[in-house]
């Protein structure tokens, strides 16, 4: 029921609102405000040329639509990879309606200044950009400053030859199990409609065994205590739905959809499975016989001097939920955030890059022949490859590096200025020297990995698949930049390259890979249909259909 006071107020309001001048004034205020904010945005990026779309490329309105003439969406750097940096390697995107201005760069020199980390940089990884990696607790990927240094010091020793040998052994085992279980030998010719189904399973198996220390096998994955899901299914579901769990409000997770319910069961199963594992692991650490990263990590932390040792507060999970302030759970699992980050940072990235490599080799038979020739020379046919062969199989790795250059999984590196600072921006190609640019505290700079990998300053004819670019390069050289550069570069690089080299060596020695064409489709059409990007959390390739034929 309305009061007289409310009625008179309401009628006054109705009259005012009816008055067209009032609406005009509102619109004018909005437009003037937007123009002021837009001009301020342009000034803050020193009028660097670039795009002036309505929304920020990572903002909700923009990601609802693909990149088109009027919108720059999350895939703008892929969709416009041939035009974004034609005139300038460093550009700005300043939204006219919603969002903050950002600077985007495809120049390595600028990338080193902002993304490489370490003591001397004035840039840091903002928490919002690493949110997807915080679900299972603070970790190396998301940490910053002194806490990051401690995590890296503790994680570093776990990434040793001891671990890589385990990765090699596990990859061999997984390959043999895959061939036997899927009955490849009996078939002779094997059609795989989506090669990612195999590469994702391989990546999970290797990470499961070598990072978590779970005893996984291709045919009989162990079950959780309840027996409802295999550990592989749990890991897959956890990895598959973690974006949903970060973005969705809590009530969504109670909806009776199969995928959501399965995700809930998977998270609970993972929690109880990890608890069981931690109890067992404590005994193993004392016995000193396990080589997986989980055990090596706990051991490394135990051995650290107290200055660098991670405290319990730094180890426990900060369960990040954007709808509520962060809640600190004092859980008993130690190192859990760092173990989980390996799953998320290492699973999709490796599996997609491996799928892309097989796709490129399928339509570049000369490149495939060159790789197989080296495998035959180094390993021959009478034995399995050994970890010691890794350095000599550089053409195998070159085929992978070149595919990863086309589809750099870690496609954008987001950084924010922690103080007012100066960026030295190299002048356009063909001109010597650099131009200094003042950057204000809070300015976001995005290193565009796609832009770098397609930059003609670094790669002659960048859209041509040429593994020979990498022949003769040391496997660990920073000349290959898709794992990032400097102290904050990917800690899992050798983990991934060891796994991939071993798997491709076994697979390509015995099986010729060709594209699985649709009826009447040419190789060129297959290439256009398949070798295109798909961006979720990382950048991957679309589903790759392949045929494998047993070599004589
Ligand atoms: C093809 C495979 C991979 C690619 C292309 C890749 C790429 C990258 C890139 C570009 C970064 C830097 C991100 C940034 O600074 O924002 C990074 C960091 C990281 N990667 Fe990888 N990665 C791969 C595989 C792996 C694997 C297998 C693991 C673990 C076993 C892993 C663990 C990590 C971690 C923990 C970081 C954070 C390092 C730090 O901040 O100190 N990655 N990766």
UniProtKB/TrEMBL annotation:
Keyword flag Methyltransferase: no
Listed cofactors: heme
PROSITE patterns: CYTOCHROME_P450
PANTHER family: BIFUNCTIONAL ALBAFLAVENONE MONOOXYGENASE_TERPENE SYNTHASE, CYTOCHROME P450 FAMILY 4
Sequence intervals crossing the membrane: 20-39
Record organism: Gymnopus androsaceus JB14
InterPro entries: Cyt_P450, Cyt_P450_CS, Cyt_P450_E_grp-I, Cyt_P450_sf, Cytochrome_P450_Monoox
Protein name, as recorded: Cytochrome P450
Chain residues that bind heme: 490
Family from the record: Belongs to the cytochrome P450 family.
A GO term, aspect molecular function: iron ion binding
Keywords: Heme, Iron, Membrane, Metal-binding, Monooxygenase, Oxidoreductase, Transmembrane, Transmembrane helix
């Amino acid at each position: 029921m309305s009061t007289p006071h409310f009625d008179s107020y309401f009628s006054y309001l109705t009259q005012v609102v009816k008055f067209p001048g009032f609406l005009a004034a509102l619109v004018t205020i909005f437009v003037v405000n937007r123009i002021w904010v837009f001009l301020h945005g342009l000034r803050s990026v020193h009028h660097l040329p670039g795009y002036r779309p309505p929304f920020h490329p990572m903002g909700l309105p923009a990601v609802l639509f693909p990149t088109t003439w009027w919108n720059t969406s999350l895939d703008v750097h892929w969709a416009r990879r041939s035009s974004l940096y034609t005139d300038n390697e460093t550009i700005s995107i300043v939204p006219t309606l919603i969002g903050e201005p950002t600077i985007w760069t495809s120049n390595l020199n600028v990338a080193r200044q902002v993304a490489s980390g370490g003591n001397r940089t004035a840039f840091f990884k903002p928490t919002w950009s690493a949110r997807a990696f915080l679900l299972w607790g603070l970790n190396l990927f998301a940490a910053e400053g002194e806490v990051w240094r401690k995590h890296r010091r503790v994680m570093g020793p776990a990434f040793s030859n001891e671990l890589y040998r385990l990765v090699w052994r596990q990859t061999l085992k997984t390959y043999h199990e895959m061939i036997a279980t899927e009955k490849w030998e009996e078939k002779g010719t094997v059609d795989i409609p989506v090669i990612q189904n195999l590469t994702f399973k391989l990546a999970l198996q290797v990470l499961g065994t070598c990072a978590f220390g779970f005893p996984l096998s291709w045919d009989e994955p162990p079950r959780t205590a309840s027996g409802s899901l295999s550990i592989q299914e749990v890991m897959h579901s956890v990895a598959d739905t973690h974006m949903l769990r970060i973005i969705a409000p809590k009530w969504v997770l109670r909806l009776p959809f199969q995928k959501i319910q399965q995700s809930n069961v998977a998270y609970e199963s993972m929690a109880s499975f990890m608890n069981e594992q931690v109890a067992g692991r404590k005994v193993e650490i004392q016995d000193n016989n396990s080589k997986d990263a989980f055990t090596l990590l706990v051991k490394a932390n135990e051995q650290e001097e107290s200055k660098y040792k991670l405290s319990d507060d730094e180890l426990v999970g900060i369960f990040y939920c954007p709808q509520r302030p962060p809640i600190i759970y004092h859980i008993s699992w130690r190192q859990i955030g760092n173990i989980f980050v390996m799953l998320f940072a290492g699973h999709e990235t490796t599996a997609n890059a491996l799928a892309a490599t097989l796709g490129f080799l399928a339509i570049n038979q000369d490149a495939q022949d060159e790789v197989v020739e080296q495998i035959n020379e180094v390993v021959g046919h009478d034995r399995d490859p050994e970890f010691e062969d890794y350095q000599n199989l550089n053409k195998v790795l070159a085929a992978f590096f070149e595919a990863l250059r086309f589809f750099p999984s870690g496609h954008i590196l987001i950084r924010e200025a922690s103080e007012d600072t100066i960026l030295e921006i190299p002048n356009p190609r063909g001109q010597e020297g650099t131009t200094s640019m003042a950057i204000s505290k809070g300015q976001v700079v995005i290193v565009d990995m796609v832009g770098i990998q397609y930059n003609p300053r670094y790669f002659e004819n960048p859209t041509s698949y040429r593994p020979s670019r990498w022949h003769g390069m040391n496997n660990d050289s920073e000349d290959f930049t898709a794992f990032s550069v400097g102290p904050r570069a990917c800690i899992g690089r050798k983990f991934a390259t060891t796994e991939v080299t071993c798997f491709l060596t076994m697979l390509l020695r015995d099986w010729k890979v060709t594209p699985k064409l649709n009826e009447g489709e040419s190789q060129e059409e297959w290439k256009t249909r398949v070798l295109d990007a798909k961006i979720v959390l990382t950048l991957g390739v679309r589903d790759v259909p392949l045929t494998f034929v047993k070599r004589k």
